């Protein structure tokens, strides 16, 4: 006598197999009569009393659903075979492979009755077109409404480029140096073993400014002005400035550390939840 | 006697004007697809439009043309109901056959037409649905490889075939309207290869 657990396991496996079989018939257009419906119904009936969990009852329902699809295919199959259109597909395929191009065209022309259709202008649409043409302004008049802008090329000054945000008013390296100084000052103020929490340094009043600071910080680390200290268990992240920029990394392998700076994180930091 | 004559001539005039109107509707393309729906004809010609179409069809016989009715579902075994006719689409098609020379004249190359015939017959043999890959494989046997995909796309564009997201090909509205599927299969099977 099998234990209940074992019977449930076997039952699940059997239903899974039935579903796979039904799906193969549905998807690959196989002969639906390959499936013995009576036998499957008896399997479903046999294991139905074993199902207590909702998942098992869903599996049972899914099996019945797939079986119903196969029965529908069987009915369509019978219907098709009974119509005058039914021919042995293998025989037909064989003929199609062997038939000559000229011959198939000849055959097709006997069964093809193309639609007759005219795409011709009517008197009504002709009258409409004339009315439109009469109301249409000459090109000279229409183009007057859109005078083409005269474009003059002159050299742009540095101030103009800064105003248009193409250039920044400080060189990037200068900006980076200032940012490094700011980091060193903040670390000194905090007096925490020469490091500062990442969010305490990066976080700002607005989200945009926070993103800008995170962007600058990434360059501080990449160019050797600072390093990151990660405590994975505590989920803490610190930034530690170097006294002098380190240009030689040595044999240590470089790693990229992606840090998400999302609005949610920024809001949590503002609320003091990112400690 | 005179009254009867007048009544008959009135009825003739009535149908003559309806036939003219039906000819305009059916010959000139009004929508993206050719043909006119039954309900459109009812609206334009009145509820006796099936009779008007029957008379038009008999007139067209002399020109080797016919009024073809394509039902939304399968062709009803018995006389179609008014509802079925309203939903059906009506076309003017060739009644007889084209010669290969004439087919060329209406813009079909023999290769393209042969490809279309093979494709339609193959899909019919597969009960109305066949994977595009299989169809292309079959066509590659007789058509240049580079042309096969282009041709299948062309058959789809013309409305002979349609394709689903799983790249399965089906017969579309133009095949249903223009091709006598049973005749095609019978003719293919009766060829001596």
Could you write a compact summary of the structure shown?
The complex is a heterodimer of chains A (275) and B (193). By secondary structure, chain A is mainly alpha-helical.
Query: Based on CA inertia axes, which overall geometry of chain A fits?
Result: flat
Please identify the structural class of chain B as seen in this structure. Answer: alpha+beta
Oligomer: heterodimer
Strands of chain A, total number: 3
Largest sheet of chain A: 3 strands, antiparallel
Distance between the termini of chain B: 65 Å
**Which blocks of ≥5 consecutive residues of chain B have pLDDT under 50?**
none
Describe it.
The complex is a heterodimer of chains A (275) and B (193). Chain A is mainly alpha-helical and 275 residues long. Among the domains of chain A are: 4-82; 172-270, Orthogonal Bundle (Arc Repressor Mutant, subunit A). Chain A has 12 helices and 3 strands; from the N terminus they run αααααααααβααββα. Chain A has a 3-stranded antiparallel β-sheet with strand order 1-3-2. In chain A, β2 (226-231) and β3 form a beta hairpin. The longest helix of chain A is centred in the first third of the chain and has 29 residues, at 54-82. Chain A starts with a helix and ends in a 5-residue tail after the last helix. The model of chain A has no long low-confidence stretch (mean pLDDT 81). With 193 residues, chain B is α+β, with helices and mostly antiparallel strands. Chain B folds into 2 domains: 2-96, no CATH class; 101-190, Arc Repressor Mutant, subunit A (Orthogonal Bundle), CATH 1.10.10.10. Chain B has helices spanning 2-27, 38-45, 49-60, 82-87, 100-105, 110-125, 132-140, 145-158, 173-178, 181-190, and strands at 36-37, 65-70, 89-94, 129-131, 161-163, 168-171. Chain B starts with a helix and ends with a helix. At the A-B interface, α3, α4 and α5 of A face β2, β3, α6, α9 and α10 of B.
């Amino acid at each position: 006598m099998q234990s209940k657990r074992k019977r449930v396991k076997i039952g699940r496996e059997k239903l899974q197999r039935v579903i796979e079989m039904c799906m193969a018939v549905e998807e690959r257009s196989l002969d639906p009569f390959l499936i013995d419906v009576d036998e499957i119904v008896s399997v479903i009936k046999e294991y139905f009393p074993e199902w207590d969990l909702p998942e098992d009852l869903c599996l049972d329902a899914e099996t019945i659903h797939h079986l119903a699809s196969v029965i529908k295919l069987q009915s369509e199959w019978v219907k098709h075979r009974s119509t005058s259109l039914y021919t042995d597909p293998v025989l037909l395929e064989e003929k199609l492979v062997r038939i000559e191009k000229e011959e198939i065209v000849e055959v097709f022309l006997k069964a093809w009755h193309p639609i007759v259709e005219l795409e011709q202008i009517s008197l009504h649409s002709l009258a409409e077109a004339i009315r439109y043409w009469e109301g249409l302004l000459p090109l000279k008049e229409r183009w007057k409404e859109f005078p083409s802008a005269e474009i003059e090329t002159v050299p742009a000054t540095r101030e103009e480029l800064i105003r248009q945000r193409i250039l920044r008013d400080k060189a990037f390296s200068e900006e980076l140096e200032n940012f490094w100084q700011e980091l060193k000052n903040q670390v000194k103020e905090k007096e925490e073993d020469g490091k500062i929490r990442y969010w305490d340094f990066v976080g700002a009043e607005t989200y945009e400014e926070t993103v800008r600071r995170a962007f600058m910080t990434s360059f501080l680390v990449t160019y050797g002005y600072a390093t990151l200290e990660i405590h994975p268990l505590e989920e803490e992240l610190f930034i530690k400035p170097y006294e002098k920029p380190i240009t030689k990394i040595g044999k240590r392998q470089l790693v990229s550390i992606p840090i998400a700076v999302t609005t949610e994180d920024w809001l949590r930091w503002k609320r003091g939840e990112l400690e | 006697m005179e009254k009867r004559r007048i009544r008959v001539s009135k009825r003739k005039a009535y149908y003559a004007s309806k036939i003219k109107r039906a000819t305009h509707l059916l010959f000139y393309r009004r929508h993206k697809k050719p043909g006119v729906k039954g309900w459109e004809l009812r609206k334009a010609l009145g509820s006796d439009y099936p009779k008007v179409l029957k008379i038009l069809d008999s007139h067209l016989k002399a020109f080797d043309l016919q009024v073809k009715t394509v039902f939304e579902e399968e062709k009803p075994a018995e006389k179609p109901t008014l509802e079925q006719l309203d939903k059906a689409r009506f076309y003017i098609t060739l009644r007889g056959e084209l010669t290969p020379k004439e087919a060329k004249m209406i813009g079909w190359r023999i290769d393209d037409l042969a490809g279309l015939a093979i494709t339609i017959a193959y899909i019919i043999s597969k009960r109305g649905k066949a994977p595009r890959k299989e169809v292309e494989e079959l066509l590659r046997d007789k058509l240049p490889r580079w042309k096969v995909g282009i041709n299948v796309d062309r058959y789809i564009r013309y409305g002979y075939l349609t394709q689903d997201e799983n790249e399965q090909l089906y017969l579309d509205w133009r095949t249903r309207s223009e091709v006598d599927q049973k005749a095609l299969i019978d003719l293919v099977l009766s060829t001596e290869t």
